[in-house]
């Protein structure tokens, strides 16, 4: 595996000694970021103390900047565990217009059938993450976005995220 995990340069945002931040390559959602370990491992316990300590700073910086760009919420979670890829985290901005699109798409009302009782909130992070993945990462023709394009957002993030 090459440095920065073979992510094309146009998607690179920032880097520390232990982490790289890039825009998710196959996402049409502006600001959907991947925070990946520089060390190729799937285990947090394999990372240096320095990398583990700086992880919180990287997460907080990403959240602060995405919130400043208009995200109502920023979900940061680990999903991938494929061999050969480093441990990484998805930072998913949920803008008001993304949530509006979710509520306007009746296909996603089917998710309500999976709960036995009333939820704590009208929707949750899992449902909105599922929506973002299906609509902005896997769909050939994703929904229209509101605000800066992916390329413009990358340029903004490069200026705003400095380590």
State the shape: globular
How far the N terminus sits from the C terminus, by CA atoms, comes to 24 Å
Percent range for β-strand residues: 15-25%
Share in helix: 25-40%
H and E string: EEEHEEHHH
Main sheet strand line-up: 1-2-3-5-4
If you average the pLDDT, what whole number results?
A: 90
Content-based structural category: alpha+beta
Number of strands: 5
Q: Residue ranges: pLDDT <50 for 5 or more in a row?
A: none
Number of contiguous helices: 4
Largest sheet: 5 strands, antiparallel
Overview of this structure, please?
The protein is built from four helices and five strands, in the order E-E-E-H-E-E-H-H-H. With 163 residues, it is an alpha+beta fold. A five-stranded antiparallel β-sheet has the order 1-2-3-5-4, sandwiched between helices. The longest helix is centred in the middle third of the chain and has 20 residues, at 49-68. The model has no long low-confidence stretch (mean pLDDT 90).
Brief overview, please?
The protein has 163 residues and is an alpha+beta fold.
């Amino acid at each position: 595996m090459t440095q920065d995990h073979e992510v094309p340069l146009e998607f690179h945002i920032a880097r520390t000694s232990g982490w790289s931040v890039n825009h998710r390559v196959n996402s049409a959602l502006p600001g959907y970021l991947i925070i990946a370990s520089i060390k190729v491992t799937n285990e947090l316990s394999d990372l240096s103390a320095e990398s583990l300590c700086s992880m919180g700073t990287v997460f907080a910086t990403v959240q602060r900047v995405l919130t400043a760009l208009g995200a109502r919420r920023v979900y940061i979670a680990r999903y991938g565990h494929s061999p050969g890829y480093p441990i990484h985290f998805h930072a998913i901005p949920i803008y008001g217009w993304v949530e509006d699109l979710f509520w306007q798409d009746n296909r996603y009302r089917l998710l309500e059938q999976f709960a036995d009782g009333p939820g704590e909130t009208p929707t949750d992070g899992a449902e909105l993450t599922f929506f973002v993945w299906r609509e902005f990462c896997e769909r050939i023709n994703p929904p229209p976005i509101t605000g800066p394009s992916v390329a413009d957002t990358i340029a903004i993030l490069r200026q705003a995220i400095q380590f």
